[in-house]
């Protein structure tokens, strides 16, 4: 029976681990990131893959840093036939890449060579892409540059956000890996070298990428908001505090005022001027120092004094 080391961390990865277990593969160990403090109370919380692994009765290894670690040697000593990764979050050292007879493969949430890197789902939505998908690929020393084994594309709907697309692509990843893995084990799979002229990157989201630039048009800002929902969340500045925008839509108001100016106020939303005479309608927000709330609740309470002409920056 083919022995596997599975490496993954977030919610995207857990269903893939469950699929491998349900298919009866011999999972020698699950490698994931260390437990991290979560929330305002900083509660030490296991990553979703660890929770799934423990539920399935699987051994868990959690290296802070894989390269040169005792945990790396522990993994090598297990002598897996293949290593399968899905959003693990660390670069694999060459000695691990070279060790398994069937190689190290990765379930990557983009149609490579587009969107190499740690935030392919976020970036595809932010860029307004109409399509994305999953790539099963061999891993190489260079980030997400290995040969492509198989791919499956899906549409990005106009109301998709990162959280929802993560779930969709996790299902696609499960299905594609389930279909592809037998051919890898039998060494009958195809492999295609990536076209380096078509490479784009999706690095982990920076704080600067989270900030709204009101001079951009409303469609671009809507893509930014949904690409950052439900994490890490877009924000702007209002009354000298950070003001998070959890959800918005392209507004109806037309204007010729300075971008960032409030141009319309309704019962359940308000609209802020964006570039090219467009406006962004805010529906789900979080003022500085407050909990997340609907715009309707905001306008009835904390934001009751909001007026047309007020400025977001």
Automatic annotation (TrEMBL):
Pfam families: Formyl_trans_C, Formyl_trans_N. One of its GO terms (cellular component) is cytosol. One of its GO terms (molecular function) is methionyl-tRNA formyltransferase activity. Residues 204-301 form the Formyl transferase C-terminal domain. (6S)-5,6,7,8-tetrahydrofolate binds at residues 110-113. Its EC number is 2.1.2.9. Residues 4-179 form the Formyl transferase N-terminal domain. InterPro entries: Fmt (IPR005794), Formyl_trans_C (IPR005793), Formyl_trans_C_sf (IPR037022), Formyl_transf_N (IPR002376), Formyl_transf_N_sf (IPR036477), Formyl_transferase-like_C_sf (IPR011034), GART_AS (IPR001555), Met-tRNA-FMT_C (IPR044135). SUPFAM superfamilies: FMT C-terminal domain-like, Formyltransferase. It catalyses: L-methionyl-tRNA(fMet) + (6R)-10-formyltetrahydrofolate = N-formyl-L-methionyl-tRNA(fMet) + (6S)-5,6,7,8-tetrahydrofolate + H(+). Keywords: Protein biosynthesis, Transferase. The keyword Phosphoprotein does not apply. Coiled coil: none annotated. Attaches a formyl group to the free amino group of methionyl-tRNA(fMet). The formyl group appears to play a dual role in the initiator identity of N-formylmethionyl-tRNA by promoting its recognition by IF2 and preventing the misappropriation of this tRNA by the elongation apparatus. Belongs to the Fmt family. PANTHER family: METHIONYL-TRNA FORMYLTRANSFERASE, METHIONYL-TRNA FORMYLTRANSFERASE, MITOCHONDRIAL. This is Methionyl-tRNA formyltransferase. It comes from Lysinibacillus mangiferihumi.
């Amino acid at each position: 029976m083919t022995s596997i080391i599975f490496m993954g961390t977030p919610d995207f990865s857990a269903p893939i681990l469950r699929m491998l277990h349900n298919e009866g593969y011999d999972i020698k160990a699950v490698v994931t990131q260390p437990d991290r403090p979560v929330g305002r109370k900083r509660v030490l919380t296991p990553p979703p893959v660890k929770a799934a692994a423990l539920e399935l009765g699987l051994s868990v290894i959690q290296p802070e840093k894989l390269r040169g670690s005792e945990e790396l040697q522990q993994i090598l000593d297990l002598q897996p036939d293949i290593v399968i990764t899905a959003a693990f979050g660390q670069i694999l050292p060459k000695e691990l890449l070279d060790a398994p007879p069937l190689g190290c493969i990765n379930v990557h949430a983009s149609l490579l060579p587009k969107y190499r890197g740690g935030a392919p789902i976020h970036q595809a939505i932010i860029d307004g892409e109409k399509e994305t998908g999953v790539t099963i690929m061999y891993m190489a020393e260079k980030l997400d540059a290995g040969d492509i084994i198989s791919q499956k594309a899906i549409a990005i709907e106009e109301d998709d956000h990162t959280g929802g697309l993560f779930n969709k692509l996790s299902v696609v990843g499960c299905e594609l890996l389930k279909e592809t893995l037998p051919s890898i084990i039998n060494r009958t799979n195809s492999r295609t070298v990536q076209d380096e002229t078509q490479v784009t990157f999706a690095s982990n989201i920076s704080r600067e990428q989270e900030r709204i630039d009101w001079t951009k048009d409303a469609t671009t800002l809507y893509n930014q908001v949904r690409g950052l929902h439900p994490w890490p969340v877009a924000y702007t500045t209002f009354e000298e505090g950070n003001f998070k925008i959890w959800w918005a839509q392209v507004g109806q108001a037309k204007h010729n005022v300075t971008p960032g100016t409030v141009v319309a106020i309704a019962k359940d939303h308000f609209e802020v001027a964006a570039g090219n005479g467009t406006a962004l309608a805010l529906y789900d927000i979080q003022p500085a120092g407050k909990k997340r709330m609907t715009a309707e609740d905001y306008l009835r309470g904390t934001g009751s004094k909001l007026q047309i002409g007020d400025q977001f920056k």
